[in-house]
Structures are given as C-alpha cells and as structure tokens.
Amino acid sequence: MHAQLLLDGTTDIARPAAVMTAHYGPRNEGMIAAVARLYVPDGATVVDATYGRGNFWRRTDTDRFRLVSSDLRALAMVRADFTALPFADASADVVVLDPPYIARPESNRFIDRRYRNSETTTGMSYARILDLYREGIAEASRVLRRGGTCWVKCQDTTENRCQRWAVIDMPAVATAAALTIRDLFVLVNPTPPGGLAADVQHQARRNHSYLWIFRKPVRI
User: Fold this and answer.
1) Is residue 4 part of a domain?
2) Which string of b and e fits 143-167 if b means at least 16 CB within 10 Å?
3) Considering the domain boundaries, does residue 186 fall inside one?
4) Spans in the chain with pLDDT lower than 70
5) Would 61 be classed as within a structural domain?
6) Residue 20 DSSP code
7) Which of 2, 4, 58, 200 has the greatest CB tally within 10 Å of its CB?
8) Is the alpha carbon torsion for 152, 153, 157, 159 positive or negative?
9) Helices (H), 91-165
10) What CATH number is associated with residue 108?
11) Is 127:121 a contact under the CB 8 Å cutoff?
12) Residue 155's domain spans which residues?
C-alpha cells in the first residue's frame, strides 16, 4: 500500500483492488497472486505439493512467506508424492494441490502435450483421479495447522460422453477430510486447449477451471 497526502494535510492509505472470484486469462499465476493476498498471512509456511515448474507463483511476492516446493520432479525442493508428504502433522499454514485432472489424457494428444498429464495419469478413469484427490486432500489435512487452508485446483470434464462434475465432488471429498468450505475461484481461459472449432460436439467444451479454498477448523 502507498500513503497519499490529502489536500487537508492528512494522510490516506491507498487500498489495493478488491480480490474477485472470477479471473480471466490462460494461466493461473494472476489468480494465485490475488488468492495469496487473502489467504497467505505474512510469515506463513506454504507447501505447494504439486509444484511442477513453479508457474503458480510467478506473480506472487513469495518473500513475505516461506514457500516449500514438493513434487515428484527434481525441480522441487522436496521430491515426494502429494498423497504421502514427508512433513510433520500440523506443520503448514497452506497446502496447494493441482494434480493432473484430465481423465484418460491419451485420448487428447493436444491437451496431453500441453499439460503432460499422461506422465502421471495414463489411462486413469475419472473415478481413479477422484481417488487421488481424496488421498491428497486427506494428506493435506494432516499436514495443515488448525485454521490453515488447502487450495485445490480442479476442472469438470467428460468421460465416455458423460459429465463428470469435479466442482461438485470436491466439497464432499474435503468434508470427509475434516475440512470446511472457505472460498471458490474461477479461472476463464480465453484460448482453451484444442481450439474453438468442433466438427462433432456432444457437450459444451470446458474453458474454465476452479480453485477451491478449504479450511481446517480451529476447533473440531
């Protein structure tokens, strides 16, 4: 924030723009920077359990908190599966989960090349991917301190021409892990993978994804 001198000689503090639920852009980093303003207190310990290349944090001031990167890839500080984290109980203020969530990614080579989902979810059904979320969210709940938040990125999809509603399924998964719903953000992609043309189309094509914010209650 910047101090502004008013005409009457007093000082006002310029307030940052309000954080909105919907964000527009092809990538996550703008949305994550906004969410971090609300849900990452100064000095917090943040575990990004699916760190990848660290793209989430490109526009976030990570100097004001401790970011611990964890992934199966060597780029992360810690090499670990997000369903079996090597961190102590109640040791983090925020845990971030963004696992590959496209069912059977080999069926869409364009999407697979862009997101590399088949490296970890080759041939997986939506039910199995939901199981991964269930295991990861339960592990996040274990690692979180009371009052901490679990950020879960997901997207609705189709499988065998049937709608799979991840945005509906995630709250039930979080509730089973003793977490409560805190917030929900939407990212709209103006240029969705696969382009805009469609010769044969059975359902609306997804051009948005979600970021759920779940909270571990202070008292249980």
Assistant:
1) no
2) bbeeebbbbbbbbbbeeeeeebebe
3) yes
4) 1-14, 103-123, 192-199, 220
5) yes
6) P
7) 58
8) negative
9) 109-115, 118-121, 126-143
10) 3.40.50.150
11) no
12) 22-191+201-215
Q: How many domains would you assign to the chain?
A: 1
Tokens of 175: 């509730």
pTM: 0.83
Which neighbouring-strand residues pair with 209? 187
Q: What is the largest CA-CA distance in the chain?
A: 67
Q: Which two tokens stand for residue 92?
A: 């983090």
Q: Tens digits of per-residue pLDDT, 86-108? A: 999 999 999 999 998 776 554 54
Cα distance between residue 189 and residue 179, in whole Å: 28
- For residues 117-129, one letter each, b for 16 or more C-beta atoms within 10 angstroms of the residue's C-beta and e for the rest, the string is bbeebeebebeeb
Residue 101 lies in a domain: yes
At 110 the pLDDT is 43
